[in-house]
Amino acid sequence: MPSIFRRALLLSAAALPLALSEAPAAQAPAKLRLRLLETTDLHVNVYPYDYYRDRADDTVGLAKTASLITAARAEVPNALLFDNGDVIQGSPLGDYMAYSHGLKPGQVHPIIAAMNELGYLCGTLGNHEFNYGLDYLGVSLAGQNFPSVCANALKPDGTTLVPPTRVFTREMVDEAGQKHSLRIGVIGFVPPQIVQWDQANLNGKLTTIDIVEAARQYLPQLRAESDVVVALCHSGIAGGEPKAGAENAALHLAQVPGIDAILAGHQHLVFPGGDFANIPGVDAKRGTLHGVPAVMAGFWGSHLGVIDLVLEREGSAWKVADFGTEARPIYERAPDRKIVSKVDAAPAVLAAARTEHEATLAYVRQPVGETKGSINSYWALVADDPSVQIVSNAQSWYVRELARSAGMGDIPLLSAAAPFKAGGRGGPDYFTDVKPGPVAIKDVADIYLYPNTLRVVKVKGAQVREWLERSAGLFNRIDPALTAEQELINTKFPSYNFDIIDGVTYRIDVTQPSRYDNDGKVVAPEAHRIRDLAFNGKPIDDAQEFLVATNNYRAGGGGNFPGADGKTIVIEAPDLNRDVVVRYIVEQKTIDPSADGNWSFAPWPNTAVVSYVTGPGATAFRPAGLNVEPMGNTPEGFTKYRLGHAG
User: Fold this and answer.
1) pTM of the model
2) Could you report the per-residue pLDDT of 380-430, keeping only the tens digit for each?
3) Domain range enclosing 203
4) Which residues are CB-contacts of 196 (< 8 A; sequence separation ≥ 6)?
C-alpha cells in the first residue's frame, strides 16, 4: 500500500499556493510523522543463501532487508528500527557459531555484527534465543550496540532477565520543520512457553509470566514516561477468548491500555494480510488489532514491517491521529513461479558476517556418510516417509543402549519424529531433498532443522493412542458425501507437530473430525481418527508401558501432546537429535533410506476429490502404492495432486 507519508507529500504540494496567499485563522496543532520499522524472526539469516541446498536464495537474508530499511528511511524525516526476536538460532550459521566456533566474552555474533550496521533502536527476545543456554545468550546480547527489553522472563530473584522497558528520547522534526524531543517507550515480550521448550537450559534459572499480565504490570508507568509506546511482541495473532499463558497473545495484548503500536512475530506470517482474515478484533487489511496499528514482517528477513504514525500535539501530549501499516517484501514470485528479487544485498551487512559465512559453508559441506537413495519430504504429510524414518531409526538406535543402562531395557521402545520441511508458509521449495551419494552435515541439518536435545518419555498405550490423535489434527475432515474438491491439509497446523510414532502400526481416518484442535484441546470427545493401532501385530494394550524417544520440545510440553508434559521424562540425553542422526550415519557408513509403511490412511470414497499440495520436485518421488493424479500448479508455485481412493 502507498505510504501515508507519500500521500501527505502530494497533498502538501497541492496546497502550497493557498498557504502562501492566505494566513490561517488559527494556528494548527503541531503534526509529526513517525515511521516504525520492524525485522523479526531473522534466525541467523544474514546472507541471501540456503545453506541446506548450498546455493543462493533471494527469498531470505538481512542483507536484503537492509536495502528496504535504507529506502524506507529515505522516504521520511523520522524513522526508528526495531527487532522482534529469534535472532541467534535457526540456520546452519547459528549452529556453526554455537557448536563449532563458540562465542567467548567480548566476541560479537555475526548476525549481531550485521545488525549493528543498521542502527537499531531496540530489540526483544524470541523463544529461540534460549536454545543455546543463558550464558551464550548473554554473550550474544553483550555484542549488540542496541539494548533489548523483555517484561515477562524472570530470574529466580524476581527481576527480569533484561530490562522490561526502556524510554528513548530522540529529536524529531514535525511537518513545519520544527524540532521536538520525543520520548519513545518500548516494552518487550516472549512466549511464556520457553520454560517448557528449553527446560534443560532454564530450569531453576528462569521463569515466565503471562504476556498480558506483564503488560498490565509495566505499561502504566511506561505510558506516563512516554509520548509514544511501542510493544515488541515476539508472539503471534490468535483469536478466541484470552487464556493465561497464551503463546500467541498479540491480539489480547492490544486490549491493554497504553500501547500505540504492536510489532508482532513468532508465527512466521505476514500482517497485514490474508493469513489473519475473519478473526474478530483483527482488521487484516488495514493492519490493526482491536484498533491498534500492528505489523508482522514474515521471517528470515523476507519482509520489512512498516508502521507510519501521524502524531498530533494536544497540549503537552502527543496523540496518534492517523496511521498506515504494511509489510514490504524483498522478493516477489513471477507468474512462471520464478523468484524475482526486489532489492540488492547491502554490502556492509554482508561484510559484517563474511568470515563466519564462509566458515559455515566449509562446516556444512563436511561428509559424514553416504545414502543409496534420495531422502526427501515431498510426500511426508500423506505417506510414511524416508526423511522421517531415518530420524526415528537413529533415535531408536541411540536410545536402546541408554534404556538398558538405565534399567529400562525390557520396556518396549517407540520413536516419534515429524517432518520439519514440508512446504506450507516456507514456500514450494521448502522441502528436504537430499540426493543419493555423500551425506554432509548440511544434509543432516536439512533433515533435522532444530537444535533439539533427545529425550525419552515413559507413557502407556492409551497415551500413545492420544498422542497420535493429537498428531492427526494435521488433516482437515474429509466429508465422504461431497464430490467437490476438499483440501486434506490443515494449513494452520505446523508440520513439526505431525508426529509419526515408529514401532506401532495404525491407520488414520480423515473422514472423522479431529479429536483435538490446533492448540491441543479436546474438542470432539467422541471422535477417533486412529484406527487399528497395533504393537507387534496385536491391538495395543492401553495399560502397557512404552518408552518413546522424542525431543526436548515435545517431551517438555511443546504442542500440548498427551503424555508429554515434562512429567513423563525418564531419560535426558546429552546429545542433540541432529547429532544423533549424524552419529547414526557415521556408524552405518552407508544408509538406504526407505519407509517401513507403519501408517496409512483408512479408505475414503473414490468419489471424494481430496487434494494435496507439495513442491514441484515431488513428481519424481511418488511413493509406491500412493495413488495420485496431477491437478496443476497453484499461484504460489506449489503443485497440486488429487489423492486417490485410500486403502
Assistant:
1) 0.76
2) 999 998 999 999 999 999 999 889 878 999 999 999 999 999 998 888 999
3) 4-358
4) 556, 557, 558, 566
